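Is this the right way to post structure tokens for a design question? Let me know if I should format differently. Anyway, here goes:
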């Protein structure tokens, strides 16, 4: 169960956790139009906490709203400040941050109108390793989902729209119920797309390969890993690949705010590489955690101090 904190920011003010409730006729509950973000705040090695790539996450939230065709009734600066205030007032040094913008009660029917207010909430909580401590350390087992990832003209895949996640819920549930840790989702042409809540990388001949920004969410961790790898002299290509190319890869891993960098040790019951996190995955993991904890000045501008 999610660990309760004392306060949630709702429509401009911090209110008690229990008071952050919504009306059952909120449009988003029925039809799924809304947008959210997932952001992490880490405690730095020096003791001070900082939010990782806050500006990029706030920008993506506004992009999602623009794509969805609704307007966030606050500025980027106000949302940024609200996130920092919610963290400070809850006294969390490390947290997962969940801003959600949703369409409230008013008009019913698919079409929302000016009668439906746009609400914004920001909750924070402690969230450890998304796929378990052991998964983060030793790698996870994944299966190809029977569900495809969205076609680009069925859902707006560049947006983190609430309803897009019905597809993720179906895939994740199927994967877990059949004994796997996570679902690998193919695009509608049959190429590897992403996971239910993560982007994917494979390693071949010492180089990284990741899905191009076609039908996938443009992950901020993905972009960070590409920059980190290139900074360490590891070549990266953004190119479609098939599931058999994943099977024969030397290494593979998922990236995401929640999942961070999680190694994949097995796909569809086939061992990847040695079946243990490989050297490139471990190197990137180590460097990623050094960056988020403020140990690498080169990427200091990715951190917003609390
Ligand atoms: N693809 C999808 C579909 C996705 O949901 C995420 C984040 C990513 C890729 C990686 O994006 P980024 O976080 O910017 O690197 N998934 C979020 C929600 C997870 C959840 O279960 O809730 C997250 O990691 O916060």
């Amino acid at each position: 169960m999610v660990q309760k904190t004392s306060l949630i920011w709702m429509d401009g003010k911090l209110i008690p956790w229990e008071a952050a409730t919504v009306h059952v006729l909120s449009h988003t509950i029925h039809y799924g139009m809304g947008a959210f973000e997932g952001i992490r705040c880490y405690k730095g090695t020096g003791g001070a906490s900082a939010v990782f790539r806050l500006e990029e996450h706030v920008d993506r939230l506004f992009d999602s709203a623009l794509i969805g065709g609704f307007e966030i009734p606050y500025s980027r600066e106000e949302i940024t400040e609200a996130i920092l205030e919610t963290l400070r007032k809850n006294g969390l040094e490390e947290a997962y941050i969940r801003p959600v913008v949703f369409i409230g009660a008013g008009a019913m029917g698919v079409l929302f109108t000016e009668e439906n207010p746009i609400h914004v909430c920001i909750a924070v909580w402690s969230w450890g390793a998304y796929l378990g401590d052991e998964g983060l350390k030793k790698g996870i087992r994944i299966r190809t989902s029977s569900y495809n990832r969205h076609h680009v003209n069925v859902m707006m895949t560049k947006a983190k729209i609430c309803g897009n996640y019905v597809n993720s819920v179906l895939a994740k549930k199927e994967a877990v119920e059949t004994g796997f840790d996570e679902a690998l989702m193919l695009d509608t042409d049959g190429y590897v797309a992403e996971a239910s809540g993560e982007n994917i990388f494979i390693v071949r001949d010492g180089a990284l390969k990741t899905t191009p920004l076609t039908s996938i969410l443009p992950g901020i961790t993905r972009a960070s890993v590409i920059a980190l790898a290139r900074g360490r002299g590891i070549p990266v290509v953004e190119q479609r690949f098939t599931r058999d190319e994943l099977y024969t890869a030397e290494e593979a891993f998922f990236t995401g705010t929640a999942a961070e960098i999680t190694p994949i040790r097995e796909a569809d019951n086939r061992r990847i590489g040695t079946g243990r996190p490989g050297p490139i995955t471990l190197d990137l993991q180590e460097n990623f955690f050094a960056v988020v904890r403020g140990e690498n000045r080169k990427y200091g501008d990715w951190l917003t101090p609390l």
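Format looks fine. Someone answered above. Worth noting: The chain has a mean pLDDT of 97. The CA atoms of residues 211 and 239 lie 5 Å apart.
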